[in-house]
User: What shape does this take?
Amino acid sequence: MPVYPVPATTDEPQLDVAADLLALLRATTTEPRPDPQLAALTLAVAADLPVLLWGEPGIGKTAALTQLADSLDLPLTTVIASVHEPSDFAGLPVVGDDPANQGVPMAPPDWAVRLVRAGRGLLFLDELSTAPPAVQAALLRVVLERRIGALSLPPGVRIVAAANPRSSAADGWELSPPLANRFVHLQWTHDHEVVVRGLAGTWPRCVLPRLDRHRLVPAVGFARRAVCGLLAARPGLVHRLPTTEARRGGAWPSPRSWEMTVRLVAFATAADTSREVLSLLVRGAVGDGPGLELLASLDRMDLPDPETLLADPGAATLPERGDLRQAVLDGVVEAVRRRPERTRWEAAWTVLAGALESGPPDLVVVPARTLAALRRDDWDVPASVDRLAGVVALSRRAAEVAAGADR
Amino acid sequence: MTPAATGTLDRDKLFTARLHAVQVRPYLATALFALHVVESRQVPTMAVDRHWRCYVSPGFVARTPVAELAGVWVHEVSHLLRDHHGRGDRVARERGLTGPGERLRMNIAADCEINDDVFGDGLARPEGVVDPAGLGLPPGELMEDYLRWFRLGPRTQDWVWLDCGSGADGREREWDLGPDGAHGLSPQERDAVRFRVAQGITGRPGSVPQGWRRWAEEAFHPPQPWRELLGAAVRSAVSVAGVGEDYTYGRPARRSSGVPGVVLPALRRRPPRVCVVIDTSGSVSDAELGSALLEVTAISRAVAGRRDLVTVLPCDAAARVVHPLCRAEDIPLLGGGGTDLRTGFARALRQAPGPDVVVVLTDGQTPWPTVRPPCRTVVGLFPRSGYDERDPDRVPDRPPDWARVVDIGPAGHR
Assistant: This one.
């Protein structure tokens, strides 16, 4: 057991001792740890989109904002919405000498003045959900129009709001669909491991995404292609108001939120962030269903192009994941079906034979069967088909099992 | 010499089984193909981890017929699609279930959820498989429910070897490659696969079993507990600007002394009046009514703070007397026969002073008012098939757009 030095005198002021103890408690270290939700928040803030953090009280939203402000080098201003009156955001009337002629100016609160004078900063509007409706109405004007009384917030100021989920909000504030559509919604949850380690003295330090100047132009092109490609194929996704009670107050797709999505995809691409982070952002902008469809079509954009594979079947590298590999093989066969030519048909057989050598055989069965059906009378069976003999056996065996199971 | 003795994995047999599984369950193809096979001698049979790897024992493959292997494939992928590991973790946290015994129970409960309708129709049923009937439990329930209803004991003795891996119950196994191992799927990729499967199921009406259809509908929009939704709807209706409290110029604000000469609004609170209209027609059970009524009154009391401002109005074809809530115990929930909520609305709005919010609890088998009432309306809707044997073609109207509708089901899952 360690021996602690006992102070010689006992007349040291107790508050000084308390201060030492507090200093010891405050001294914590950090360790690097990837944190998708913080990375998503950073990107959305960098993209200058209003973010709404949904999270139970006391799970570290404020701590996250402090870290974000540090890493972006922005001064942090926190405004607790529930202790303010609407006039604090709309401006306080100050009566001058001749109000009838001069008018009554609406004086902004001091924090707004300081923020405007600094020209840059991170404004955190906390506890939106516990403020009375009129205060929320005034606050939303701050978020959406960036105006506080007569003041306009300069472009260097970024805004983040936080709210408690409906289930824990005492007075049940919720967003109407038009308002919900203007935010990127991020669900803020705590990670059990992080909290336990943090209380023991080590908090995570997130490596924040950095934008790469050289990738800006391709990133914009990629983002526009991704979103327009999806919406061209799925016109129904462009605008879809939430209809059920369970989806109220959350993200939903509209031209506005798709525009936000283009911006988010471009930022994520330029910063080379993970799909994990992009998934949080996209689903937070347009909702789960449309967001997942966009992500699925991004996955497909990453797949090798069937025409490239047919042009040089020997050099084909197929994705490792079975479901993606199957999508590629289906794409190759479909390309042959659309433009059947003998050389393309033979190239497709080479691709299938290659797939068989580098991965599980059952993926190849259905594409091989379809491709075989595309044969014209004057096309000879290429030599590479011999390598697919195993597939034929596999297929026959599966058919026998099916017949057996039917009996 | 069998492959088991030589110890090599018969990949052809394993993949023939997967091919068969894909052919009889085409809507699961994406998920089945996304699984990455890892040969392992430590696994008793086949097991999955939460990163969508499938660990396979060569011996198990050698001694199991292909038809049964196909069933095991579908069974294992079902654990992953239904997020049993995530749900297992959540249940463990919520109910404080710790220890390997509890995880085995979770594995058994998850197997019960899957196995009651996964086999048949082209898939052979593996021997000794867990099912609810073996435990004396009803089919068609969720893992969370089964978990409440049985303990480890003589009945589960045969299943102690059962091990579907960390993908089934959330407990890490010694053979798991972990999040950093090769060929794992990231959470986003897992969601994408589940989404593709769900899309495939909803786009294929008719040929998919009911259990999978329900899964697909709920996969990305899990049903929220109706109590919370109803509570939020009522709270929001009651506390919105203009109902409960708002700024008024009726009296000066506390800040007025600071800005002489200016009239500032002050916050005033006027408790909202809530009228609960209850459909007492024969189609709504007393238990349903009782629980919903309790819910609404608890909420409105929390918001308004005064019991005398909440009134209850039982309604069938003819609206009856309006009862104040202080006598809620005595409200005769009589009725039966047809409902006409239009009379209920009319009666509720005839009160003086009129209600700020009308909450309607009904099964929806009723005509609705054609015009929007001059107050906020929340509808708690009890689920009904809507089938009427006297008039099989009748489709009851959904509540109108101006009402906020909460579907009231059994107590919320998940």
Q: What stands out?
A: Chain B has a mean pLDDT of 75. The longest helix of chain B spans residues 100-118.
